[in-house]
Write a structure and sequence with these properties.
Layout (H helix, E strand, L loop, with lengths): L22 E7 L3 H12 L8 E7 L7 H9 L4 E4 L6 H11 L4 E4 L5 E2 L3 H11 L5 E9 L5 E4 L8 E2 L3 H6 L9 E4 H7 L11 H12 L2 E12 L6 H8 L1 H17 L5 H28 L3 H14 L3 H26 L8
Parallel strand pairs: 1-2, 1-4, 2-3, 6-10
Antiparallel strand pairs: 4-9, 5-10, 6-7, 6-9, 8-10
Length: 347
């Protein structure tokens, strides 16, 4: 681990004598109570009972809504609720979720996502069939703010089972969503929780690579989880505009590189990470284009700087040159036109 990056948060074992259900469904929330009803309803519809499943909402000091009321109304005493004394940030809130969990299997379900019928039954069967796996995940539906289906994640295998070469695949770039994956608690205890060095993205990808480096992972072919992609007001959306999102993904590649070489040949590890860096550089260029179209030159330049930090290959340099020749010219013309005196019709 590079000295300039933080270390993963330690997750301590459940104290002796505490009840140990099979499942812990931990639901982090922050200003998303309008979606929380659907989230809780999707879990409660599959509830096997308190002895088998812990369900708890962990709120990071919401200021725009009241998730406690939703939990009380819908949970009817079945769902636990814990509120942070102050806003601690989403990664520290994740750490609280993991530390408060008591189950052998942990499902971290965002308060604006949901699961479909059969999620817990199917993934439980995976751990029963292959107890050596460290995690299991299913395909995801990507939905918009209104809940409409937009797309579906990759079909990693034609049939459900343990993924071969999964470390190579996940190290080449993020390809699964947090609500789709279940992790054994003792895996978090051994490897640690999410790394607090991230500000808005990358912590999940780094975690899934870390798990893949140490344990086999199961893939369920059915799309049993729904991930909500919010266009406005989201942490990811706001951070994309400032360059933090691409920066975090670049930092994730640096952390992954620091331990990936222990499991893969150095050259192969470099090839995989370079593939990821090129993809994130392309992200930055596309975001820069959007920023320039919106008239924000300084943010566009910040994105271009991040693109070069991710990857400075000839292909990326050519993309940047093309970007400035096309979009830069259009931006300059729009800027000049704003300063031109309006033409008046001759009489």
């Amino acid at each position: 681990m590079s000295k300039k990056h933080s270390y993963p948060t330690a997750i301590t074992p459940v104290p002796d004598g505490m009840p140990r259900p099979l499942w812990s469904v931990m639901i982090p929330t922050f200003n998303c109570a309008n979606y929380l009803r659907q989230t809780l309803a999707s879990v409660l519809a599959q509830d096997p009972g308190a002895e088998v499943m812990q369900i708890e909402v962990i709120d990071d000091g919401s200021t725009q809504d009241d998730p406690a009321t939703v939990v009380e109304e819908l949970g009817q005493g079945r769902v636990g609720f814990y509120r942070q004394k102050a806003n601690v940030g989403y990664i520290r809130n994740f750490a609280t979720c993991l530390q408060r969990s008591r189950g052998k299997l942990i499902h971290l379900l965002h308060g604006d996502d949901y699961v479909r019928d059969g999620f817990y039954r199917k993934l439980q069967q995976a751990f029963e069939q292959k107890p050596e796996i460290g995690a299991a995940f299913c395909r995801s539906l990507y939905i918009d703010e209104q809940g409409h289906w937009q797309s579906i994640s990759l079909l990693e295998l034609p049939e459900s089972g343990i993924l071969s070469n999964w470390l190579e695949q996940i190290a080449a770039g993020q390809r699964l969503t947090t609500p789709s994956i279940v992790v054994r608690r003792d895996v978090y205890e051994k490897l640690g929780g999410f790394n607090p060095c991230f500000s808005c993205a990358g912590e999940d990808w780094e975690m899934w690579v870390r798990i893949a480096a140490h344990y086999p992972v199961w893939f369920e072919v059915e799309p049993l989880a729904a991930y909500r992609v919010k266009r406005s007001g989201s942490l990811t959306g706001n951070s994309a505009a400032t360059g933090e999102l691409v920066r975090d993904m670049r930092i994730a590649t640096e952390i992954i590189e620091s331990y990936l070489s222990a499991y893969l040949p150095k050259r192969h590890a470099q090839e995989l990470l370079n593939k990821a860096r090129k993809e994130y550089a392309r992200w930055a260029i596309e975001i820069a284009r959007q920023m320039l179209i919106g008239g924000n030159l300084s943010r566009a330049i910040a994105q271009i700087k991040e693109a070069f930090k991710c990857n400075s290959s000839l292909r990326i340099i050519c993309s940047v040159i093309k970007f400035f020749l096309l979009e830069g010219g259009r931006y300059s013309w729009r800027y000049l036109r704003k300063g031109m005196p309006s033409r008046q019709k001759k009489t």
